[in-house]
Design brief:
With 339 residues, the chain is an alpha/beta fold. Helix content is 41%, strand content 12%. It is built from 14 helices and 10 strands. The chain starts with 8 loop residues before the first strand and ends in a 12-residue tail after the last helix. The chain binds flavin mononucleotide.
Length: 339
């Protein structure tokens, strides 16, 4: 373990369609060392129910990565306190110790319903929601008798970073266990560059525990941020971590990604989907999405990758993957979000 990384907590970001239970279990099995995995958001509704795939994603029996070294933290998307508190109780009953509120999702269908980043538009309404959440949360206890922790994942505004200050003032008033800040406004989605300088100004406005999230694709990127924010001890990685699933290991002083382990990771994800009953084509589609990240390690193998994405049967798909790993030059690359 490097001295700089000692004591720091590393998290896999929630990513809808990617970091579900199959992915999380496979990641933890092949690349142990990540302390926290956030689930993609659970879309809460007035029926106080979840979709079948969401129930599966949080079923404690399926969480193979929860082995004393890693924790799974479910994230919820809602603008209603009663729904949030229902989820908090339901998750506490299933042994979870923390629930994370999404106030950052930029999707138009989410924002227009005042959820996700839509909550940032009206700080007064956000405050009413948080008042109700924290009024009720004290009644919800985990199996070990502790109060359920509430964390939030947010952005630095809807349209302008000028909003960040007022938003931090709101968040600072509540007993969040952690505030995860992705320093981009909603209108930026995930494009362009993140704004660490805005994270710095947020950090100056609260004594709460902050987690930094945004554009960390390499161990070097992380060292730069650690130097800039030595007091920050919690880090969340998304696209860079999907691309390089060994990122945390390297930050902690370990070796860089090897082809064999990426193949094992791939196979575990594919087999995990199939074992869960996912149809072949759908399992392949899941993997195609991952190849949009993993392609960075196979420079000059564009033709091979194109052929891979055109495969129609699972047998053909597996053959193409094995061909790619056998024949293409593997050189760990990194996600280039600016391309
Ligand atoms: C495909 C995709 C799905 C995402 N799904 C979620 C989600 O369910 N909940 C959430 O809070 N953020 C979600 N995010 C945002 C990520 O958690 C993260 O904040 C973002 O990718 C920036 O971090 P990065 O630069 O390390 O990738 C998603 C991002 C992407 C690209």
């Amino acid at each position: 373990m490097t001295k700089e990384a000692q004591g720091d907590v590393f998290s896999f970001a929630p990513m809808e369609g990617i970091t579900n239970v199959v992915f999380r279990n496979a990641h933890h099995a092949v690349f142990p060392g990540t302390q926290r995995y956030y689930t993609p958001f659970l879309g809460l509704n007035q029926n106080m129910n979840l979709q079948k795939k969401e129930w599966r994603d949080i079923d404690p029996e399926n969480q193979l990565c929860v082995d004393g070294t890693a924790e799974v933290i479910p994230q919820v998307l809602t603008c209603h306190a009663d729904q949030f508190l229902w989820a908090a109780q339901m998750l506490a009953d299933r042994g979870y110790g923390e629930i994370n509120l999404n106030t950052g999702c930029p999707a138009p269908t989410v924002v227009t319903r005042h959820k996700g980043a839509g909550l940032l538009e009206k700080p007064v309404e956000l405050e009413i929601l948080l008042d109700e959440i924290f009024d009720g949360i004290g009644r919800i206890h985990t199996g070990s008798g502790k109060e359920m922790r509430v964390s939030v994942k947010t952005r630095t505004g809807m349209k302008s970073h000028d909003e960040a200050e007022a938003l931090m003032e709101v968040f600072d008033r509540y007993p969040f266990s952690e505030i995860i800040i992705h320093p981009r406004v909603r209108e930026e989605y995930y494009k362009g560059k993140a704004h660490p300088e805005v994270f710095a100004s947020c950090a100056g406005r609260t004594a709460k525990k902050l987690c930094y999230n945004g554009d960390i694709y390499t161990a070097e990127n992380w060292r730069e941020r650690k130097k800039q924010f030595p007091e920050v001890t919690a880090w969340m990685f998304g696209r860079g971590f999907v691309t390089d699933p060994a990122l945390v290991r390297q930050i902690q002083g370990g070796k860089e990604l090897e082809a064999g382990e990426l193949l094992e990771f791939h196979d575990r994800i594919l087999d995990g989907y199939l074992q869960m009953g996912t149809e072949d084509r759908n399992a392949m589609f899941r993997l195609f999405e991952l190849w949009t990240y993993w392609r960075f390690h196979f420079q000059g193998a564009d033709k091979c990758l194109k052929k891979l994405k055109k495969t129609k049967s699972l047998a053909d798909y597996r053959a193409r993957v094995n061909e790619l790993f056998a024949e293409a030059d593997f050189a760990p690359g990194f996600y280039d979000g600016l391309k």
